[in-house]
Amino acid sequence: MEPWIELDEDALRQLIDAKAVFEAWESARAKAAEVRGGMLWRTAKGREYLIRTGVDNKQKSLGVRSEKTEEMYSRFVTRKEAAETRLKTLTEELDRHRRLNRAVRVGRAPDILVAILQVMARLNIAEHFIVIGTHALYAYEAAAGVRLQERALATRDVDLLWDTRKRLQFASRMKNLELSMLDVLRKVDSTFEIRDDQLFTAVNAKGFEVDILRREAADLDPNPLQLTDDEDDLWAVQARRANVLLGSAPFSTPIVSVTGRMARMTTISPTAFVEFKRWMASSADRDPLKISRDRLQASIVEELANRFQLAG
User: CA-CA distances (angstroms) from residue 155 to 86, 136, 250?
Assistant: First the structure.
């Protein structure tokens, strides 16, 4: 007996259609971001200049009014209008697919997980984290169009591996946003608090936990390491062999929540997942209660990757 159930024809067709719309929406969102802000003409000392304005209120002169700058202005306005119109249309279409996803029960990822991924993507910090551990299974099953055994997915926490190799870029981004990582989580659920006994864990009022992991300190890595300068923010805990996971091929795919919402999850390749889970199961200090699940997950993902030719 296979350790998964394939989606029925209606659900599979809907998943394929929803993924296509989601990926088109992602592309439209990226193109719209390129033309955020605006352009305007400003007169100074009797001459008109073309000014490029940003969403952060920064302004840059593109030159005195001429055929060249008028053409630049015209192209920008046309491009901006087209990008915003396309994004609006695809946003509406994506919402329609959210309702269809729910109607035919396409997804089953926890809604809070998808909401966290959505917020991180919207704030442009998603690239600094990869999902590891049990929740990675939602990406593998979504890519294969199946539902895995419930017992393989049982968990109440998500592990986010922070890529400290890019910590300076992350720090700059968070400073510009004027947010801590805890603030980011509270955009999803205002009840998130840091556990007193685990400063790398945020937990909400319903007991859902977010753990922030990092590779073991190497090179010039500071240790201990807090995610931002906010003294009340989360700290990252060192995880053994996390450097191996950071160096593995990424696996990225849209996932669908139980309510039909969609987000992109980036995790490790199925091959890396299998190897890591088997290493964990063989570790002398591994919690005996988790060893059987480690082995089960490794076996299922290996079989799933071979059957559906999942990359990595």
Answer: 39, 12, 22
Phi, psi of 234 (to 5 degrees): -70, 150
Contact 22, 94 (CB under 8 A): yes
170 shares its domain with 29: no
Considering 83, 106, 129, which residue would you say is the last residue of a domain? 106
Residue 261's CB is within 10 A of a number of other CB atoms, namely: 20
Phi, psi of 262 (to 5 degrees): -125, 150
Structure token digits, residue 131: 């999902």
Rg of the chain in Å (alpha carbons): 23
Q: In terms of domains, do 81 and 226 share one?
A: no
**Residue that terminates a domain, selected from 106, 140, 170:** 106
Contact present, 159 and 137 (Cβ < 8 Å): no
Q: What is the pLDDT of residues 254-300, one digit of tens each?
A: 999 999 999 999 999 999 999 999 999 999 999 998 999 999 999 99
If you ran DSSP here, which 8-state letter would residue 257 be given? B
What is the DSSP secondary structure assignment for residue 249, as one 8-state letter? P
Q: Tell me the C-alpha distance between 30 and 39, whole Å.
A: 19
Q: Tokens 């990092």 appear where?
A: 214
Q: How many domains does the chain have?
A: 2
Q: What share of residues in the chain are helix, strand, coil (percent, to 5)?
A: 50, 25, 30
Looking up tokens 């299922």 gives 300
Q: What confidence tens digit (pLDDT) does each residue in 169-219 have? A: 999 999 999 999 999 999 999 999 999 999 999 999 999 999 999 999 887
Distance CA 207, CA 101 (A): 26
150 and 276 both lie in a single domain? yes
* The pair of three-digit structure tokens given for residue 196, joined into one six-digit string: 């007193």
Q: What is the pTM of this model?
A: 0.94
How far apart, in whole angstroms, are the C-alpha atoms of residue 188 and residue 180? Answer: 13
